Amino acid sequence: MHLSAQPYLPLIPPQAIPIGLAGGLLETEQGGAVFLHGLATFAWGPGDVAARRWTAIQLLRLKAASASEISTAFGIDRSNLWRWRFQEEKMGLAGLLPDRPGPRGPSRLSAEMVARIQVRDQQGGSLREIAAAENVSTDTVRRALGRGSKAKAEPIKPPAEPSSQSEASQPPLPAVPAPRPRLEERRAARAGVLEEAAPVFTEGTELPLMGLLLVLPALVETGLLEAGQAVYGKLRNGFYGLRSFLLTLLFTALLREPRAEGVSRIPPADLGRVLGLDRAPEVKTIRRRLAELSERHLGEELVRVLARHHAQARSDALGFLYLDGHVRVYSGTRKLPKAHITRLRISGPATEETWVADAHGEPVFVVTTPPGNSMVAEMRRLLPELRALVGERRLTICFDRGGWSPELFFEIVEAGFDFLTYRKGQVRKEPPTAFQQVVYQADGHRYEYDLADRPVSLQLPARKDRPRTLKVRQVIRRLDDHQTTMVTSRQDLSSGEIAHRMFSRWRQENYFRYARRHFGLDALDSYRTQPDDLQRSVPNPARSRLRRQLARAQQRLTELEADYGQAAHTNSEGARPTMRGFKIAHSDLGRLLDAAKAVVAHLAAEFDRTPTRLTLAEVAPDSRLLDADSKLLTHAVRMSAFNAESALVRLVAPHYRRAHDEARALLLEAFRISGDLQIVDGRLEVRLNPLSAPRRTSALAALCRDLNDTETPYPGTDLVLRYSVKQPPTVA
């Protein structure tokens, strides 16, 4: 039931406090009442705190007004409203009764129990395991360990509730308190007996970088922490474990400081509060942990596990997969294999990678391309990987002209896939009469194309076990005088969708551009190298040099022959009537011509004797490769950061008109804002400051409401995250 959808009837007493557009609150010495659409819907007697709270919960449940409007009208903090609803759902009306004043009874937390709890904690037990062993609650365990306990916390003082039995006020939280030092745990870490420091949160107001906690519900969709746990298990014993290490890399990437050196530009205490620690790890610690994980050579396995999680969480986006190569330029002193750098139009030392993205351009996985592999060879190598990823479903692989190979197309179709690519080479233009206007709608947008569509046959190399031709479909787009030709095996799609899917390949290019600028896609995250395969075959550089020398010698011979012919053409028979006389007169030119012919013949013979390819050991025995495992690990974290950010973009889009252009900028601002942090009834309350504009603050508040529905706990704890946005100050 949604009462606010009824016509608004402004029939409330003039003394009543408005509650949204539909209701009003009137309280006197005889009790209180709430009017909805002109009717007295709820009422309670004097001092009936439970009925008053129940009324506020019912208004929230009926969606008669927003939580902010209800809490403002009732003079309470918004966190109290959510706490009452939780207690009412758990205990019924008894959960809304005010707390009994005075002593609460004897405490079960004796000195002996505290000692046992501390021993179990040092042995690596979780809060739940310790609580079950001691038959107490996790709050009791947390209080015994001094981790954000209610006894030591200083919760935010809510506005006084107008009732005869007002709750006892509590002192306000301190502003930007310094995190409590974790000296004992650091001593244990140095002794090698601490597996990982557990999160202990610093409660306070105006804490920097609290907006980073917004990403944690979206991080669950990427599966980063679960994949890291499944692949690596744990790090060596120390204060910073696998969880805090991965979260540090993730948070710094979201702050656009993706490299390890970026941590030095973020106050350690500020990032430490978000991690639940006293300070964030330093650059040297991050590099040591990165080296420790890369030594296990499990980077490819981590990427595969994340890809499988992505396939389950975003299965609707895996109908089309985009494959493309990416070249990471290297400008150091190591001798690396060279690759063609398309955007720079030169060749230089670089590392090649093959990326796979889903239909929305979000990265699924990445592999390091062996030096010298073509796009065709890489696609052949990845077909079994794609089949393992998507199971038996039939998907379409989209790629550019670098993968053009009719023989590869036949293998793709035989493997149970479809393909979509641009046609390579000279193609006869279609006549104007073959084109027609096609309209295609997708993602709330309207696309218009001028398309021609017809079947074609591609010639295959002759083999007895397959046909000589492959029948495919050719779709041509005309834009002004230019025609773009696409080839696909999909016969069931409209020509408009074929064009839209092919041109959507630029979403992957846009990711490369965005990640290169914001997420350190090409950053050198490790200075370590690994040996190259010295037995692999590489082009013979001596043959390339001879080819260039032979080309220059042939050009010189051609020039001399032209000069000799020109002299013969202009020869005067009166002066030199015989050929012998002509040769004597041009003896110098003739000698140069004979010498040039000899040079060409010598170079041609030398070129024919030179082998085309050699092993790498014969060409460059000192060749090295950049450490691939460390880069794959950082790729996995930054892919998760981008995909988690994309999940938040999808949530905020319905609430923000300019989400298509500004959603990521809004999130970047939200990640950097300050807020309040408090532990209340097993929940980690995060109250964020308003953003730079009212429309952005409104979108952030809507995002917080959506994230609250996920009931996501902070990693490594039982504390459920609850988000809210402070009311912006009113301007007189």
How is this structure best described in words?
Residues 1-7, 102-106 and 149-170 have low confidence and may be disordered. The strands form five sheets. Strands 6, 7, 8, 9, 10, 11, 12, 13, 14 and 15 form a ten-stranded mixed beta sheet that branches. The protein has a four-stranded antiparallel beta sheet with strand order 1-2-3-4, with helices on one face. A four-stranded mixed beta sheet has the order 5-20-21-22. The protein is built from 24 helices and 22 strands. By secondary structure, it is α+β, with helices and mostly antiparallel strands. Among the domains are: 3-96, no CATH class; 111-145; 541-565 and 589-610. The longest helix is centred in the C-terminal third of the chain and has 29 residues, at 541-569.
What's the overall average pLDDT, rounded? 86
Structural class: alpha+beta
What general form does the structure show? elongated
Measured as a percent range, the helix fraction is 40-55%
How many separate helices? Answer: 24
Q: Tell me the distance between the termini.
A: 37 Å
- Beta-strand residue percentage: 15-25%
Low-confidence stretches: 1-7, 102-106, 149-170
Rg, alpha carbons: 36 Å
Largest sheet: 10 strands, mixed
How many beta-strand runs? 22
Task: Output the keywords.
alpha+beta, 10-stranded mixed beta sheet, single chain, about 725 residues, elongated, 22 strands, 4-stranded antiparallel beta sheet, 24 helices
